[in-house]
């Protein structure tokens, strides 16, 4: 805490305000007609008060997005929410409450804010350039009106005192100038520099955001261990592009997933918590897919390949099954990715056997719905099929089978993780749904002579996000400048000090020093005192001064007699 | 099946015991501060005695040496229209060496800082000194608890809400003790600080407790040390700013009530509490300074988080609830800083904004972690 109060009195507020180049605010329209009103509206928009209200509105407008599910984050959640709230759902939809941060109203607020900012900051920048090119403003006629003031008499000559004060102020890092028998000086220009830098770098941030949203693209891909991926539209599971980054702009590269390592906590109350995920890959860029480089991708450690970044997003298991038809022909064999449902990786998935061939003279297809449990419980008659631990300690595959038409020939795209059983019948055994639990290596002879299914084992899969996002460097540069600007603008104190040495009728010299600071936390009084003490080496105070000043302390600034005006003397 | 190990159970247990011990000592310190305030209310409140003593000493010291004395008295215009003065003395030819400085007071007692919680009561002062010693002891235990927690798992000890809360409470205490060491007049903050620390630690050990374990892969990043440490420091400092703001509002109300001819503080509080606190303008200045100092750090916290998010999730900003509330907190603190510089918004209105901003910060910590699901779900709270 400071032990001085440096707040200027209310009357000097306007003078103090001029230390910053903040625009002077106007309350009512100036002039008449459309232009008068437009100008008034523009002044209102660029005023601090409106900027404050807009800032406040921005924070209010951001709240719903944190409480209502957002399309940009989780579209499934949005759909579920809409189903659960059928009455308000459509209203929310109309109000764009599921897309708050790209909604018209949210955009309107921040665009208005940026316009307001531009209208304020650009003129201020020019004004500040003008300030930098000019000399510090000359000393006011009456220095006693300044918030901090000290004076003493000396035998030294006025000119010499002014020159000494000028030199001392320069040494203290002030910009100083002697004119008209007084020294004007100013320090702390970095405050305004920081202020302008901060606000201008917000535009850089906005530009970075804008560039990213116009020219970025992101795709998802699930890869099973041992399989490869080439970065083309046909191989991606999903892709969202933007105006300037479409499916034809995908960066040319590819990689092969050699293996996936997962480690889990095996003891304590956080048993089953993930401890490490690593995808081991070999990748290539450009046209040459034979020159492979090894690399690891971990959570938090994406791999940058050929202009895109590859992130590890998820992982799971892909049980390997072999299906043979009634004739004993192998009609399906390989790993099928199942999707994890909980933290212990209870996974669900479907196996679609579209090339089963014929059964009883009719073209038939088979489908399986199943659960993959990396660690099966001893008995799940009560709990249902759930896994106890995410690691593959005791894996099991639970299957039910369907026969009929998978609907894959209809031409409509199908979700590979869902079974459309509209044209299929579930296989029964002894009047009950046929269901089997298999351990790796075990097989199941399907009822009604449909053939056999073998659970050969399992592989792991990893899902990746392939992201191309330009503009990050611009945004980062903006952010760094913003912090630097903030530090300057909040910690540097801009202040002015004037020194006037003038001859008094009794042949001595009156030295007056006065200071003005805008920020309340500035220690201008101490600074002025130090300067004055230093200056007394050049202009020693005459004896009467020391005792005289101590006695007349309680007088207020307004009542204090105005010292002789040097201008009137000259 | 690879086993994830690396938890030293003995150290983890020691950490828990140290945290409990620290909590107990903080509690006693809190009671000692309560005694300080209680005893202090009985003694007469000697306003500005301290300052006047210094001034008297200054003059005496200045007159003693045979050498010529340089002395400057600066008149400072005060908020209420009165003036205060600052006197600085130095020996001639001794360069810029300032021997002593003192401060005299003008005719507006409102701008004068109170003598502190103990008032002029010696018993109160003793209780206050005991409270500070206990706080130092508790802080040492607390440091031990946080450090052993980190050592038990060989990582930075802020991977979940329990660890975060312990670290947050520690930074609050250390910031307060640092101000005391720097000879700042902040002993009156002792009671709010110990109350907050006891509450935070109590919540941490009862509701938020999680056993010492390794981290989920999402937190395997050196950004944990950078981003989360910055957030912890912001939390501690924002709390101090909040306490100063609340006291400013109280003291300002008290001043208004006195001006209106009333004799008690707001909400039926005793006048002697407010008399012993620093001046409203000092409290206001303190809260502004803290908030202005922390605001760039908070900005840095958000940006460091964005950089980490870019590495972890592919996008630096996704409006995750935690991000959104950090942003809201940031915007309201920005509002507060702008309001301070805008006519018609200074003083109480700006102070309300500061309170709102701190409320957002708290909601971002407790509310978002516990009630809202998002990507920052590392609370470990079942």
Automatic annotation (TrEMBL), chain A:
Q: Which InterPro entries match?
A: Cyt_c_bgen_Ccs1/CcsB/ResB, ResB-like_domain
Localization, UniProt: Membrane
Keyword Iron included in the entry's annotation: no
**Which Pfam families does this entry report, sorted A to Z?**
ResB
Membrane topology type: Multi-pass membrane protein
What region holds the ResB-like domain?
A: 48-528
What are the UniProt keywords, alphabetically? Cytochrome c-type biogenesis, Membrane, Transmembrane, Transmembrane helix
Where are the bilayer-spanning segments? 50-68, 104-123, 196-214, 473-492
Does the keyword section mention Membrane?
Answer: yes
- Region spans: Disordered: 1-25, 534-570
Origin: domain of life: Bacteria
| Annotated protein name in UniProt | Cytochrome c biogenesis protein ResB
Q: Which organism is it from?
A: Kitasatospora kazusensis
Q: What is the lineage of its organism?
A: Bacteria, Bacillati, Actinomycetota, Actinomycetes, Kitasatosporales
Automatic annotation (TrEMBL), chain B:
Is Zinc among the key words of this record? no
Region feature (Disordered):
99-123
Q: State where it is primarily located.
A: membrane
Its membrane topology is listed as:
Multi-pass membrane protein
Its transmembrane ranges are: 18-39, 130-149, 161-182, 189-210, 222-249, 292-313, 325-343, 350-368
Any idea where the Cytochrome c assembly protein domain is?
Answer: 158-372
- Keywords assigned: Cytochrome c-type biogenesis, Membrane, Transmembrane, Transmembrane helix
Compartments where found: Membrane
Record PANTHER family? CYTOCHROME B_B6 PROTEIN-RELATED (PTHR30071:SF1), HEME EXPORTER PROTEIN C (PTHR30071)
Give the protein's recorded name: C-type cytochrome biogenesis protein CcsB
The species this protein belongs to is Kitasatospora kazusensis
The gene name reads ccsB
């Amino acid at each position: 805490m400071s032990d001085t109060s440096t707040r200027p009195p209310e009357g000097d507020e306007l003078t103090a305000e001029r230390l910053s180049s903040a625009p002077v605010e106007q309350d009512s329209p100036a002039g008449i007609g459309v232009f008068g009103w437009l100008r008034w509206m523009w002044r209102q928009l660029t005023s601090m008060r409106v900027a404050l209200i807009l800032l406040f509105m921005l924070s209010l407008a951001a709240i719903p997005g944190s409480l209502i599910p957002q399309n940009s984050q989780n579209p499934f959640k949005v759909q579920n929410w809409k189903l659960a709230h059928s009455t308000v759902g459509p209203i929310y939809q109309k109000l764009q409450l599921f897309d708050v941060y790209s909604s018209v109203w949210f955009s309107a607020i921040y665009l208005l804010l940026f316009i307001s900012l531009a209208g304020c900051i650009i003129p201020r920048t020019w004004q500040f350039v003008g300030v930098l090119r000019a000399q510090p403003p000359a000393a006011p006629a009456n220095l006693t009106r300044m918030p901090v003031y000290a004076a003493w008499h000396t035998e030294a000559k006025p000119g010499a005192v002014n020159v000494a004060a000028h030199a001392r102020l320069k040494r203290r890092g002030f910009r100083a100038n002697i004119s008209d028998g007084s020294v004007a000086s100013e320090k702390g220009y970095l405050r305004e520099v920081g202020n302008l830098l901060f606000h201008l770098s917000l535009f850089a941030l906005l530009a970075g955001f804008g560039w990213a949203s116009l020219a970025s693209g992101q795709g998802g891909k699930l890869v099973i261990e041992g399989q490869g991926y080439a970065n083309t539209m046909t191989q991606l599971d999903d892709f969202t592009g933007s105006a300037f980054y479409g499916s034809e702009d995908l960066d040319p590269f590819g990689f092969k997933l050699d293996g996936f390592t997962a480690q889990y906590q095996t003891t304590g109350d956080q048993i089953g918590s993930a401890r490490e995920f690593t995808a081991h890959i070999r990748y290539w860029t450009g046209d040459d897919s034979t020159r492979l480089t090894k690399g690891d991708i971990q959570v938090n450690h994406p791999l940058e390949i050929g202009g895109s970044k590859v992130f590890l997003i998820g992982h799971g298991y892909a049980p390997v099954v072999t299906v043979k038809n009634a004739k004993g022909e192998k009609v399906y064999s390989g790993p099928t990715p199942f999707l994890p449902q909980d933290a212990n990786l209870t996974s669900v998935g479907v196996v679609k056997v579209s090339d089963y061939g014929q059964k009883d003279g009719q073209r038939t297809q088979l489908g399986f719905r199943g659960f993959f449990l990396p660690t099966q419980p001893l008995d799940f008659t009560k709990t249902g099929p759930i896994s106890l631990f995410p690691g593959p300690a005791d894996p099991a595959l639970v299957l039910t089978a369907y026969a009929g038409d998978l609907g894959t020939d209809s031409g409509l795209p199908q979700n590979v993780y869902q079974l459309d059983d509209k044209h299929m019948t579930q296989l029964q055994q002894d009047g009950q749904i046929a269901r089997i639990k298999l351990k790796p290596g075990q097989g199941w002879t399907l009822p009604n002579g449909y053939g056999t299914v073998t659970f050969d084992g399992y592989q792991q899969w990893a899902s990746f996000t392939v992201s191309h996002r330009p503009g990050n460097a611009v945004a980062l540069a903006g952010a760094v400048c913003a912090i630097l600007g903030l530090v300057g603008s909040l910690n540097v104190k801009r202040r002015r000090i004037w020194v006037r040495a003038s001859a008094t009728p009794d042949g001595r010299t009156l030295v007056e020093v006065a200071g003005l600071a805008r920020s309340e936390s500035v220690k201008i009084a101490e600074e002025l005192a130090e300067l004055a003490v230093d200056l007394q080496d050049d202009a020693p105070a005459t004896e009467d001064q020391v005792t005289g000043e101590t006695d007349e302390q309680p007088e207020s600034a307004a009542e204090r007699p105005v010292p002789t005006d040097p201008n009137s003397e000259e | 099946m690879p086993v994830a190990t690396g938890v030293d159970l003995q150290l983890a247990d020691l950490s828990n015991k140290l945290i409990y011990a620290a909590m107990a000592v903080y509690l006693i310190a809190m009671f000692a501060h309560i005694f300080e305030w209680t005893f202090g209310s009985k003694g007469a409140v000697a306003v500005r005695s301290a300052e006047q003593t210094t001034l008297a000493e200054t003059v005496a010291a200045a007159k003693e040496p045979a050498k010529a004395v340089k002395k400057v008295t600066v008149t400072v215009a005060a908020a209420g229209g009165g003036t205060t003065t600052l006197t600085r003395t130095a020996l001639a030819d001794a360069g810029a060496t300032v021997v002593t400085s003192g401060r005299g007071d003008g005719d507006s007692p409102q701008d004068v800082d109170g003598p502190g919680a103990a008032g002029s009561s010696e018993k109160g002062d003793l209780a206050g000194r005991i409270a500070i010693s206990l706080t130092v002891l508790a802080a040492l235990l607390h440091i031990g608890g946080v450090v052993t927690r980190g050592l038990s798992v060989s990582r930075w000890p802020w991977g979940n809400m329990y660890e975060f809360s312990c670290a947050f409470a520690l930074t609050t205490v250390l910031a307060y003790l640092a101000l005391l060491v720097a000879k700042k007049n902040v002993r009156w903050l002792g009671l709010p600080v110990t109350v907050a620390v006891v509450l935070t630690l109590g919540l941490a050990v009862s509701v938020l407790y999680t056993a010492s374990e390794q981290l989920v892969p999402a937190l395997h990043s050196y950004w944990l040390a950078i981003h989360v440490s910055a957030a912890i420091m912001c939390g501690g400092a924002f709390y101090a700013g909040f306490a100063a703001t609340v006291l400013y509002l109280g003291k300002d109300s008290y001043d208004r009530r006195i001006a209106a001819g009333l004799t008690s503080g707001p909400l039926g509080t005793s006048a002697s509490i407010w008399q012993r606190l620093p001046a409203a303008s000092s409290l206001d200045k303190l809260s502004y300074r803290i908030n202005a100092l922390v605001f760039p750090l908070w900005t840095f916290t958000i940006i460091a988080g964005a950089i980490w998010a870019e590495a972890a999730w592919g996008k630096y900003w996704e409006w995750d609830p935690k991000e959104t509330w950090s942003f809201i907190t940031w915007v309201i603190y920005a509002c507060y800083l702008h309001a301070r510089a805008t006519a018609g918004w200074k003083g109480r209105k700006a102070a309300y904004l500061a309170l709102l901003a701190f409320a957002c910060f708290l909601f971002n910590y407790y509310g978002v972690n516990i009630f809202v699901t998002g990507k920052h779900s590392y609370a470990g709270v079942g």
